[in-house]
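Following up on my earlier thread - several people asked me to post the actual chain instead of describing it. Fair enough. Here it is, all 68 residues.
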Amino acid sequence: MIVLMVSQYLLRVLPMIMIGYLSKVSLSSASISTSLYNVTGYNVLFGMCSSIETVFGQAYEAEQYQKF
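Reply from S.P.:
Thanks for posting it. Predicted structure:
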């Protein structure tokens, strides 16, 4: 589990390190785009998936399969 978490973290950090060797402008633009992606895309999608998991679990327990 720890190896998995470290490898997922390195997948995000290592490209930033490589971009940092190009120039400061490249690094700043990449970090801004990554932050924008996290705020607008990834976190919104993760929140929706978390709520769907709760709704589907409740529907399954109540045997209300039409909600799927």
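The helical segments are 2-20, 24-61. That should answer part of your original question.
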